[in-house]
Amino acid sequence: MRRTVVNNIVSLDGFYADQSGNPTVLNMDETFDAYNLERLRSAGTVLLGRTSFEGFGAYWPAVADADEDPSNRALSSDNREISRLYNRVAKVVVSDSLTVPAEHPWAATTTVIRRDEAGEWLEREKQRGTGDILIFASRIMWNALLAQGLIDELHLTVSPAALTAGQPLFLEPANLMLLEVRPFPGSSNALLRYRPAPA
């Protein structure tokens, strides 16, 4: 059976983004890029909410073939590989209103499903295909799936920042079991890997 894995960055005090919705206040350093690449290499499908799809779809497609600029970490070899993987992996977007334009660079690899279909779709997909069903960002969508018992693991990169206010990562109480703590050499980030605790 395929795993459904949430992969998000979070502040030390539990926020997904600041009060304006900006997640880049968190420490998205080279180790963050490398771990996202690790997860994408293991993915057979990327599952996204509409806002995350629109943001990623505007940013990532061109990174792979952008002009060389050694001073720009956004164009590192890891990020170029992330771009290439995103461009070819199957993407599923949970939205009641999104239509992907035919000219979108990801149009051929993207399917849109309604919110009320997401749970049933996920239960089916976990029984077929290969690779993880990977969720980046998309906290509203995956919190709903977590409440339905459909998330297998949460991989949380903890950034060494206390925001004191912002958008919380979790929208409802959740009981989790710790599977792994991984420091990232040369970084103040650390990975906490969890699975939902039995009810």
Give your account of this protein's structure:
Helix 1 (30-41) packs parallel to helix 3. Helix content is 26%, strand content 28%. The chain is built from 5 helices and 10 strands. The relative contact order is 0.26. The strands form 2 sheets. The protein has an 8-stranded mixed beta sheet with strand order 5-4-3-6-1-7-10-9, with helices on both faces. Strands 2-8 form a two-stranded antiparallel sheet. By secondary structure, it is α/β, with parallel strands linked by helices. The longest helix has 12 residues, at 30-41. Strand 9 and strand 10 (190-196) form a beta hairpin.
Trace the largest sheet across and list its strands.
5-4-3-6-1-7-10-9
- The helix content, as a percent range, equals 25-40%
- The count of helical stretches stands at 5
Biggest pleated-sheet summary:
8 strands, mixed
* Low-confidence blocks of residues: none
Overall radius of gyration: 16 Å
Structural class: alpha/beta
Q: What's the N-to-C terminus distance?
A: 21 Å
Overall, the morphology is globular
Total beta strands: 10
Mean of the pLDDT scores? 97
SSE order, one letter for each helix or strand: EEHEHHEEHEHEEEE
Percent strand equals: 25-35%
